[in-house]
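Per your request, structure below.
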């Protein structure tokens, strides 16, 4: 009986030891994981269940100013390029090298997610003689043929209708330059909905001089997409994040306005100023034509004309034109709106103080933002519940399997110990018999 008790005690001791060493740690780990999932869920919930408080408004305002400063720096860098272009050797190789060496990344969506791909900053570079005739033009597609060259002494010969950049540039002093408005074909709403996007340029031109004096004008066509990139991928409430596409219907977006009040960058490209098929400016929406143009999707937006929709838009433009930056929180059609604006401090040739180039705007529908936040919270809570259930099932199944394994190991170890003891027991028995 005493030997049997020792045997049972030994097996029980081994089994308990395996339980403590294998099963118990997993149990504790499972509990920790389960609590951790809940804690992470609670933290995520608190992070998303929020209102647009003062600190976040200040953050959005700061972001708008950062973007405005970046736009100003980008335009200042283009000044350097046009001055370099004005002293380049006027040959195909130099112009081709200039185009290929000036690239900048643009954000695109792909099957693997959001990617940034290099894109030439300039669509073309050309040299016009003192009479306004293009004698050399190089584009990203190659060297233009003679029949593609234009006589820009007549502004009506412009690719985008009336273009007077030659006339504006030929009278400038050495080192000065001309920067024109945004030029491009208007994208109507139907085209936008089908995937088409605004594709415009900004003309830059500078006089060229040689030993005999005025020799002509060099022209650059800046790809306007590089300016649109500064605002097109921003959701103001998502600090530090960028998105391939932003839905303006969410009322949580950034945009850009030029010094004349035209919207020149917006998530809805059909609001951007452009030209129709006859190269005439597309009509600006105003109180008289708003409903008709909005329905047709063919009107562009100038914030100075939008006071009948939102009286704060022309007010903001007036303040930004005075070189100011700031924000408003107001109610519009029973919606609480937060709008911040930042003056673009660029004062290159033709962009005098205090107007500068224009301003950056960011707009948030506070109530819609809070509603979307609550929806996100519900989604997080559902995920937490699924993760918690899954972790409990995994831990429970693992416990059963490990308990069985512990019993098997304990039995095997016990048998090994018993086998090792038998010879000693036999020797002891023989000694007792003698």
């Amino acid at each position: 009986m005493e030997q049997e008790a020792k045997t049972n005690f030994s097996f029980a001791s081994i089994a308990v030891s395996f339980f403590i060493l294998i099963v118990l740690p997993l149990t504790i780990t499972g509990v920790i994981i389960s609590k951790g999932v809940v804690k992470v869920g609670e933290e995520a919930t608190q992070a998303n269940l929020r209102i647009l408080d003062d600190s976040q408004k200040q953050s959005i305002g700061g972001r708008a100013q950062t973007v405005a400063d970046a736009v100003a720096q980008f335009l200042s860098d283009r000044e350097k390029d046009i001055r370099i272009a004005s002293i380049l050797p006027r040959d195909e190789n130099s112009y081709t090298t200039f185009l290929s060496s000036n690239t900048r990344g643009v954000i695109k969506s792909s099957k693997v997610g959001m990617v940034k791909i290099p894109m030439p900053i300039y669509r073309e570079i050309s040299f016009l003689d003192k009479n306004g005739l293009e004698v050399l033009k190089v584009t990203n597609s190659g060297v233009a043929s003679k029949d593609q060259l234009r006589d820009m002494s007549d502004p009506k010969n412009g690719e985008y209708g009336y273009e007077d950049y030659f006339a504006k540039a030929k009278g400038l002093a050495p080192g000065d330059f001309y920067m024109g408005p945004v030029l491009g074909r208007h994208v109507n709403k139907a085209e936008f909905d089908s995937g088409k996007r605004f594709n415009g340029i900004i003309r830059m031109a500078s006089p060229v001089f040689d030993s005999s004096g005025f020799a002509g004008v060099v022209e650059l066509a800046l790809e306007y997409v590089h300016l649109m990139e500064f605002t097109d991928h921003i959701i103001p409430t998502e600090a530090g994040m960028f998105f391939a596409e932003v839905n303006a219907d969410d009322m949580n977006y950034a945009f850009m306005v030029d010094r004349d009040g035209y919207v020149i960058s917006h998530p809805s490209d059909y609001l951007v100023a452009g030209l129709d098929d006859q190269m005439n400016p597309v009509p600006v929406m105003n109180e008289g034509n708003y409903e008709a143009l909005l329905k047709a999707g063919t009107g562009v937006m100038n914030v100075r004309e939008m006071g009948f929709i939102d009286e704060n838009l022309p007010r903001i433009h007036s303040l930004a034109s005075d070189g100011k930056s700031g924000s408003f929180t107001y109610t519009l059609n029973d919606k609480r709106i937060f709008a911040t604006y930042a003056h673009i401090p660029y004062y290159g040739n033709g962009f005098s103080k205090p107007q500068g180039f224009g301003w950056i705007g960011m707009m948030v529908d506070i109530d819609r933002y809070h509603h979307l936040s609550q929806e996100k919270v519900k989604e997080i809570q559902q995920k937490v519940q699924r993760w918690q259930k899954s972790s409990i099932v995994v831990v429970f199944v693992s416990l059963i399997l490990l308990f069985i394994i512990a019993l098997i190991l304990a039995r095997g170890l016990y048998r090994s110990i018993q086998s090792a003891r038998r010879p000693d027991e036999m020797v002891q028995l023989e000694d007792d018999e003698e």
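Residues 1-9, 45-49 have pLDDT under 50 and may be disordered.

Regards,
D.
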